[in-house]
Amino acid sequence: MEYQLIAPRIPDKTNFTPVEQVFLNRGMSLSDIEHYFNTSKKDILNPELLDNMQQGAEMLIKHLAAGDKIFI
After folding, report:
1. What pLDDT shows up at residue 4?
2. Torsion over CA of 56, 59, 65 and 68, rounded to 10 degrees?
3. How crowded is residue 21: how many other Cβ atoms within 10 Å of its Cβ?
4. DSSP structural state of residue 38
5. Is the distance from CB of 41 to CB of 23 less than 8 angstroms?
6. What's the whole-number mean pLDDT along residues 1-21?
7. Which of 52, 50, 5 is nearest to 26 (CA)?
8. Is the predicted pLDDT of residue 15 greater than 90, yes or no?
């Protein structure tokens, strides 16, 4: 099977994991990839910043209490 690497070679690292290679192919920098694999608590956003999160949580609680089936 023939293949061609899309991302350019980086001299200080020659063996990339498949996931790293996919990220490189999509234009992510090595520092962004490193940060992706080594996140910290400061990277976690407050879920209530998402639209309708409060209403969704209330709906989930209501359906769980009623014993309804929930498809995710």
Report:
1. 65
2. -100
3. 15
4. S
5. no
6. 70
7. 5
8. no
- Based on DSSP, count helices (H) and strands (E) in the chain, helices before strands: 3, 0
Residues in the chain: 72
DSSP-based three-state secondary structure for 67:
coil
CB 24 within 8 A of CB 16: yes
The tens digit of pLDDT for each residue in 34-68 reads 999 999 999 999 988 999 999 999 999 999 999 99
- Report the pLDDT value the prediction gives residue 35, as an integer from 0 to 100: 93
The structure tokens 């063996």 sit at 15
Helix axes 18-25, 30-37, angle to 10 degrees: 130
Q: Are 13 and 33 in contact (CB under 8 A)?
A: no
**What contacts 24+ positions apart, CB below 8 Å, involve 32-38?**
none
